[in-house]
Amino acid sequence: MDKIILVVDTGVDDAMAMILLKRHGIIPEFIVAQSGNSVLENTYRNTVGIASMLELGCPVYPGSYTPIIKPHYYEDYHGKNGLACYKFPDKPLNNTHNGIVKMYEALKHGKYRIICTSPLTSLGILFRLNRDIQRNIIDLTIMGGAFGKTPWGKGNMGDAEFNIFYDPEAAKIVFGLDIKITVIPLDLTMNPELAIKQAISVSNNNSVSAFVKKTTEFMLQKHGNYELHDPIAAYAAINPDAFEFLNGKISIDDNGVTSMEQKEESLHRIAVQINPDLYQSEIVKMIYQ
Ligand code: BDR
Ligand code: CA
User: Fold this and answer.
1) Fold annotation for 3-287
2) Which three-class secondary structure state does DSSP give residue 260?
3) Contact 123/6 with Cβ under 8 angstroms?
């Protein structure tokens, strides 16, 4: 199996993506936690907490603190600490290696697939440091963007999607590379048929199920609907055949608004549909088991 690096800003649905990957038998080589859904101190602690709850046994390294140019933007969408107020023990940031350096060292020596369910800052900085290592990326799967290709492909931050809005400069660097990029945008993940609309009972009685139940209830109470953006993106890296894609060249404007000029031959593709049965059996059921 190809080696995987996971980049997250955990985040309730990033946590669900980690749970989904584990339940599909996928353990990343290491995880990079960067700022996004909350400040780095929170997203790092949240990611370490989830990785240890899942007994992943892989290292978690802190990535970027703030976007490349903009200040950190904080919305409280996922609760005060980014994780539906679910609090894991504090983890100091200063006794571990930096995730961007770790990605550089890994890609210098080996080939990796990368899944990114966060803003693209850590990856943007990585390729600013060294563009050559892109040759060792097998492919990159990103949750991000809103392309107007379906009725729900509208932004959730004005016309932009949060991950790209948070750091458009980083996104421009990443989409300027010559690598295969699969994008899971709001055009798919905001499809109302995919949203969790009511609490789902979990049959297992363990800490992961308790976490899934509690955080889902939190999101439903706070927002009415709960969209599984990041697990859908993680699943696209596992089983792309479950999705329908449009191919084309992706561009990012200064406000983080994404667009795609459709062309059959392209390194970029965006998902616009997922097989509904596989969505239920391979994503929802796997998370809420
Ligand atoms: C994306 O933004 C974050 O809030 C979620 O974790 C997801 O990655 C959706 O726009
Ligand atoms: Ca995320």
Assistant:
1) Inosine-uridine Nucleoside N-ribohydrolase; Chain A (3.90.245)
2) strand
3) no
